[in-house]
Specification:
Blueprint: H1 2-33, H2 44-54, E1 60-67, H3 70-77, H4 79-96, E2 103-107, E3 110-116, H5 122-137, H6 142-155, H7 161-185, E4 188-190, E5 195-197, E6 200-207, H8 214-230, E7 235-237, H9 242-262, E8 266-274, E9 280-288, H10 294-303, H11 307-322, E10 329-332, H12 335-339, H13 341-350, E11 356-360, H14 368-379, E12 384-389, E13 406-409, H15 411-415, H16 420-434, E14 441-444, H17 450-458, E15 463-464, H18 475-484, H19 493-496
Helix pairs in contact: 3-4, 5-6, 6-7, 11-13, 13-14
The structure holds ligand C2E and calcium ion (2 copies).
The site of one calcium ion has 4 residues, from strand 12.
Length: about 500
């Protein structure tokens, strides 16, 4: 009996050991199935299993992230680099969302984060109120800016009362957080032999405002993300009309294709004045389309690969029109046109370098082929101005390599010229441009008032352009201005104001 008992005990204990091992193995396997093998982050399965636990009582942000143009990176640099980019983005996201159950990798290059919406105390309110001046100065999205401004009114004791103020403050804090998240994710990825600029598109849905079901919120955040991507925005909050807006975007795209086929655009001309003689010495050609403003039209056309055709259209028209004018016309060239030898070569046959000058931005000259194309154009006699100079990341080191005749100072600096910390930057640019190694003509654009004009006089600026002198005009109006000879800018009422 005793030996039978011993046998039973040892059998049971052996079975228990086995059971424990089996359970451990199953656990491990389950854990394994719920983790992404590349990044170690909880995956879609994990999210699905925990969906019901994630939302709860507190308001939340459901944030979708998608790596911009990962397919392109995979194709261009290979899958290993693509994987490396995913891993780096995952690591950065992991630092932003360190909490358990906050961050999931839901597909190849898609991440979802669940974040507590800012709960506010008075400290947070103060922080925003103090910081609004700095925010106004920065290039904030209008949406975020409105929230800040509204909040300031409320904070300074408007009739709205504290709860309205809190709501607005919450929105502005939310914008700031999303802004900061976007910035944290937009850092160049350093590879052994090159630097990749990786961007992450962001779409956001709010719980409980936009729904109570995680999967529904996930879908809505995704829609918002697509919208952000389409409009080149840093992030986009879901809104109820977002679905129908895709139809509008779609129809805008097909209208644009048709407009390009038919040349359904008009051109306007903004006079450029000589600062000393106050006479019109040139005019910049600007494209107009009935259906959208240039800041929508140009990115859309770029996305659709239509910029070369548009530039072709503008150049042909401008070249013909310039024959009727006593001054040359400045035409903007898109980076695509500058980058392609064929398109750049086309310009030579389309335009007369005596009548047409070219404006390019620094985005157009980031590779050797583009610089080579520009050199060819310069050899053919075209004058080339570097547009929006000082905006974005200026490639100062590239300046000695570029075949330029002029710099157009970005209007951002002109509009802050009364502030010493901005003026010194302008003064330094002037010093560079006027150095004997460069001898570049300087054009200041975006002049909106007389005070700025007077400041510019004290600098060594050659030419000026801006609403205060003249808005972009239809051809007839430009011709009248030129014909009447009243091109001195003191005829403009706005300057006397
Ligand atoms: P840009 O080349 O910097 O053109 C100057 C822009 O500043 C124009 O905007 C003009 O209307 C605006 N502007 C002029 N004076 C003032 C001022 O005093 N204050 C302010 N705030 N703005 C002023 P627009 O016409 O909306 O064009 C926007 C951008 O679209 C242009 O910037 C250019 O990059 C692009 N673009 C416009 N037409 C063409 C075109 O025919 N071809 C190409 N490739 N790009 C174009
Ligand atoms: Ca321009
Ligand atoms: Ca410009």
């Amino acid at each position: 009996v005793r030996s039978e008992q011993t046998m039973m005990i040892s059998l049971v204990s052996e079975l228990t050991d086995q059971a424990v091992k089996l359970i451990q193995l199953l656990e491990k396997e389950k854990n394994f199935a719920e983790r992404d093998s590349l990044t170690g982050l909880p995956n879609r399965l994990a999210l699905e299993q925990r969906a019901s636990l994630l939302l709860g009582a507190q308001p939340k942000l459901i944030i979708m992230f998608n790596i911009h143009r990962l397919t392109y990176i995979n194709e261009q640099y290979g899958r290993d680099i693509g994987d490396m980019v995913i891993a780096i983005v995952a690591e950065r996201l992991g630092k932003l969302f360190p909490g358990e159950g906050q961050l999931f990798k839901v597909a190849g290059d898609e991440f979802l984060a669940v974040l507590d919406d800012a709960t506010l105390d008075n400290g947070a309110l103060e922080y925003v109120a103090l910081d609004h001046a700095a925010l106004e100065d920065s290039h904030l999205e209008q949406d975020a800016f409105d929230h800040i401004t509204l909040n300031r009114g409320a904070y300074e004791g408007s009739a709205q009362g504290m709860s309205g103020a809190k709501e607005e403050t919450k929105k502005s804090l939310r914008s700031k957080r999303l802004e900061a998240i976007h910035q944290a994710l937009h850092v160049p990825v350093e590879l052994p032999d090159r630097v990749l600029s990786v961007q992450v598109d962001i779409g956001v849905a709010l719980y409980p405002e936009h729904g109570a079901d995680l999967f529904d919120l996930w879908r809505k955040a995704n829609l918002a993300l697509l919208k952000a991507r389409m409009h080149h925005k840093r992030y986009q909050l879901f809104y109820p009309g977002v679905e129908t807006s895709f139809l509008r975007d779609l129809s805008l795209k097909s209208s644009l294709r048709i407009a390009v086929q038919h040349g359904d655009f008009t051109l306007v001309f903004q006079p450029i004045y000589d600062l000393a003689s106050e006479r019109i010495v040139a005019a910049e050609v600007l494209l107009r389309w009935d259906e959208a403003a240039p800041d929508v039209l140009i990115p859309l056309a770029e996305e659709l690969g239509l910029m070369a055709e548009i530039d072709h259209f503008v150049l042909t028209q401008a070249n013909a029109i310039s024959k009727m004018l006593p001054v040359p016309l400045a035409v903007n060239l898109s980076p695509t046109t500058v980058a392609h030898k064929k398109d750049a070569g086309h310009i030579l046959s389309l335009a007369d370098p005596q009548r047409i000058t070219l404006e390019v931005t620094e985005h157009a000259v980031t590779n050797a082929a583009a610089v080579k194309n520009l050199r060819r154009l310069q050899k053919a006699g075209f004058k080339i101005a570097l547009d929006d100079f000082g905006k974005g990341y200026s490639h100062l080191a590239l300046l000695p390599e570029l075949p330029l005749t002029a710099l157009k100072l970005d209007r951002f600096f002109v509009q802050h010229i009364h502030e010493p910390r901005y003026r010194i930057i302008l003064e330094s640019i002037v010093a560079i441009a006027k150095h004997e190694a460069y001898r570049l003509e300087l054009v200041a654009e975006g002049i909106e008032d007389r005070a700025s004009l007077n400041f510019l006089r004290s600098l060594n600026i050659d030419r000026v352009q801006g609403y205060a002198l003249s808005r972009p005009l239809p051809l007839e109006d430009l011709q009248k201005k030129l014909h009447r000879g009243d091109n001195s800018f003191y005829n403009d009422r706005k300057l006397h104001g």
